[in-house]
Amino acid sequence: MLNSLSGRLLVLTTIFVMLAEVLIFVPSIARFREDYMLTRLERAQIASLALLADDMLDPELEEELLRNAGVFNVVLRRDEVRQLMLSSPMPQAITATYDLRDPTAAVLIRDAMLRLFSSRNDIVRVIGAPVRDAGLLIEVTMETAPLRTAMLDYGIRILVLSAVISVITAFLLFLSMRALLLKPIKGVVGHMLRYAAAPEDARRIIVPDARITELREAEEALRSLQTDLTQALKQKERLAQLGSAVSKISHDLRNILTTAQLFTDRIETSEDPAVKRMAPKLVASITRAVHLCESTLAFGRAEEPGPTLTLVDLAALVEEVVDSERLAVPDQDISFAADVAASLKVRADPEHLHRVLANLVRNARQAIAVSGKPGEISIRADETSTAWRICVTDTGPGLPPKAIEHLFTPFQGGARKGGSGLGLAIADELVRGHGGTLELVHTGATGTQFDLTLPKGDGTI
Q1: pTM above 0.70, yes or no
Q2: Where along the chain do its domains lie?
Q3: In its keyword annotation, does this UniProt entry include Protein biosynthesis (predicted)?
Q4: Which of 338, 343, 339, 336 minimizes the C-alpha distance to 312?
């Protein structure tokens, strides 16, 4: 009960109403005390009228008048003359005087609280203005025990009444909030649960019907979110189906092209001049097609295995990548340079890092080869206290604008004609799997530079 919003609302409402009643209680008890003493002054004035009517009163009658008024003596000031009207013996001396002719709220509250928390039965003097202008002032002496008893009785009744009012108010507010707010919120939660069970079912999208402005805005926002999510799920499903089909096609096409590649090797040995002239182009085209199929299959895997981090000898890995690329360009004027300290080790997955560097170096080599000019590809590495940085730089013609705009977007960021753009997309994904970044530093007519940054994390292996 208390863990629910409605239960907490009920408890908080009760507490706040009680707090409000307590704040009202203090001035109320001060007002009650003032009225109590004013009543005693009025009764004393009425008792003194008997003396004015008859100068000689029987002592027993005078005692009865004072007892009914609840005072010990009465002093009336009329025509600048202060006159003791009624009197009786006082059990003790007067300890305090209270003037009720023009008291401030602060004074009344202070005196009331002091009296409420004091259990002593004192004798006090009370001064006030006679009713109906029957003199200049009237003063009486009275004991405080009956006053405190009356104040306590009044205070208890006020607190009990406050408790009853707070409970009733809290219960009514609870019922109102439950009907106006909590029930609609539970309805929205129910909509969310039903939608979560089958988000692809458009019939389960919420239809806003709340009459409360804020709740209706929440329902409309939820409907917009559910609509977008349903469309995204449908699009994702279509893309998954398309990707599965493309992977199957690429797999079969790769097998076909591999077979064709074997035949082209035989064609290259032909003595026919025309065949010799066309064979290299055919071989290059088939090789690019095989590479595209392999890249598509690699990128299309639903779950790329996460990196297995270990300490990698970066110099040896870079040398392996460079040697592989040198074999691919035996007759081209492309040079390779590596500036990596022999002692430098990086924390990475060796297979993933090899694929990243191979993709970057291969892209650089192909860009230089397409330009038909000599070029150089360099790999250098350094480290700071927080990360390792590997720079791959080439002197090629630079990336075209479309490739820069869709740099890491598969099938859109190809840097050369016929390229798929999968190399950079795969490299970026693998680097992010290490918690690192792959960044294009610059590109232009003087060449291109990519920086690969791998964080050191919280230690080494």
Answers
A1: no
A2: 5-168, 213-296, 306-455
A3: no
A4: 343
